[in-house]
Here is the input.
Amino acid sequence: DGGITQSPKYLFRKEGQNVTLSCEQNLNHDAMYWYRQDPGQGLRLIYYSQIVNDFQKGDIAEGYSVSREKKESFPLTVTSAQKNPTAFYLCASSPVGLSSGANVLTFGAGSRLTVL
Amino acid sequence: DQQVKQNSPSLSVQEGRISILNCDYTNSMFDYFLWYKKYPAEGPTFLISISSIKDKNEDGRFTVFLNKSAKHLSLHIVPSQPGDSAVYFCAARYGNKLVFGAGTILRVKS
Here is the structure.
């Protein structure tokens, strides 16, 4: 079955530590995205990538970093510079970028990060 | 600046009746609108969409209506079922981005 796998599902971090969330897709999609969900707020875009070795900042990129070395992988690092990292993180993908004709994102099951 | 707003945090409906979820937007450049459904601790799943050039799209029990002059869209679920209980997100496309609303929790009582 094709889909998006996010790991770990739950993660606890001490303040000051960097943590990396994994996102792998076997849908052969070109574009991948990271969103953050907080209670009472919509999903907010952190970073997106339309093609391997290229990515762009979303609306709330500060304190985060990404890489896109392989088509199927788009890991997100939450750095110690992120002031309020406790949240539910969602990875998504689409066959091509949204501006290239894609309309629908397919989401993974999410990773919940808690900073202690 | 919230460009997509879902003003009702929650909605409770009796099984078999109609559920109407509403969404307002401010950006007239949005060209595509979607509804996603989300269960706790899971990722959102796509439900139904509509292009900005249309005013209605139907898929089984789900119908989305778009009123461009009012910058308003709504999702109708008829008849509502207990399995429809979830969080529903409205989303709108602009360029490379999907902008999401805050979500509405739908509870369908049996």
The first strand of chain A starts at residue 4 and ends at 7. The radius of gyration of chain A is 13 Å. Chain A touches chain B at residues 4, 6, 9, 35, 40-45, 48, 50, 56, 58-59, 90, 92, 97-99, 103-110, 112 (CB under 8 Å). The mean pLDDT of chain A is 93.
